[in-house]
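subagent[fold] <- orchestrator: predict structure for attached chain, return tokens only, no commentary.
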Amino acid sequence: MNIAALLRSAALVTAVALIPATTATMAQVDGRAGPEFAKLFAVFQRVKSSYVEPVEDEVLIRGAIDGMLAALDPHSAYLDGGDLQRLETLIDGQYSGLGLSVVLEDGAVKIVSPFRGSPAEVAGLKAGDFITHLDGKLIYGGSLDDAVAQMRGPSGSSIRLTVFRPGREEPLEVDVTRGVIELEPVTHEVSTGNIGVITVNEFSANVGADVFAAYKAIQKAAAGGRVNGLVLDLRNNPGGSLDESVALSDLFLSDGRIVSQRGRARGETVLYDAETVFRGDMAEGVPMIVLINAGSASASEIVAGALQDHRRALIMGERSFGKGSVQSLLPLGNDAALKLTTARYFTPACKSVQEGGIKPDIAVPQISDPDYALRQKYQTRESDLRGHLINELAIKDEELEVDKIVDPRFQLTAAQLEEKGVKDFQLHYAMETLRRTTKSTVALRTPKR
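subagent[fold] -> orchestrator:
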């Protein structure tokens, strides 16, 4: 396994993305930790000599490592074997399987999001679903590696998933035919009124350049070459490379800070500014909306926060996931690595998104989803994860609460919207907003200087 390649990858198998840091400092062990190590060794010896069955040293050492990291935060972990193989597969950008981003939550395999156009999405699997059985075999309480390995398989083969969907009394039995999953980080289209839509699914290598190419393609396809508005869709994007989030932000900013990361060690404090990757605003004068939701995490929040603070784009949708920490991959030999939280990141206005996430300028619910109300009730964000880092600015709980006032604009049901041909209400609302937008309105605001 090439550790350098891992540092460029996006860990899509987790609930949120891995953002590699450029530096990592190894701290010296405090000499006062000696007595604590003695306790650890005493437990190891007692288990080896007295446990009811023989236990391999490797099992005990791995358990000790996992327990140590579990005492920190939900994003720090020891990676070897299957974990590293999964990352290697994602680096290749293609595999045979279902097309799911999953995480292990309290012993259960939880779907973070199905990839767009994947067999899982076609079969109707949704974010927030819990997979309890694979081909009738209980997987609750097992390892994530084993579950992912069982879901992978030759293209064309099928597997039956038993799914618990929060809010529904009976489990669902879903047959899914595996397919070749080609990770497509950036897609684009041109809609009525010369409105461009760029969807970024994850921040893997070259996403900044891919978005640049997508916008040029939109310009070419637009009538008269004039783009009247742009939607940047970051919904359900778990993040990825910090460098690519900076590059994407730089496409639309001509000056100022993009993001800063601040860690305990001196080398972990890094400032990222505009005009370091791309020159100028490639869409200057074009009104812009960024779509986010609870599945928009980490690198997605960096982009949304930068464009919001610089008043370059209107942020629309739902409050984002709220992951404001940076993970570094620290190699441990040739076949293992430590994914460790080493810093926090901050938006240009020095706001931390940890716990609170990015709050949209205009909150728009996804009312085209018939299960939207149930999904909201059981929605998981960073602040719901056990052991998450506390926002150092001490955000109050009431600031994270959702406005319960009924908005008269969002009263249609999913069935009524479907009759009107609206399958994605948030995207529809964003495009309609841009079609009504002129340069003097809110979607194109004067940048800060």
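orchestrator: received. Logging for downstream: Residues 1-17, 20-25 have pLDDT under 50 and may be disordered. The chain has three domains: 3-25+35-83, 94-182, 186-328+340-435.
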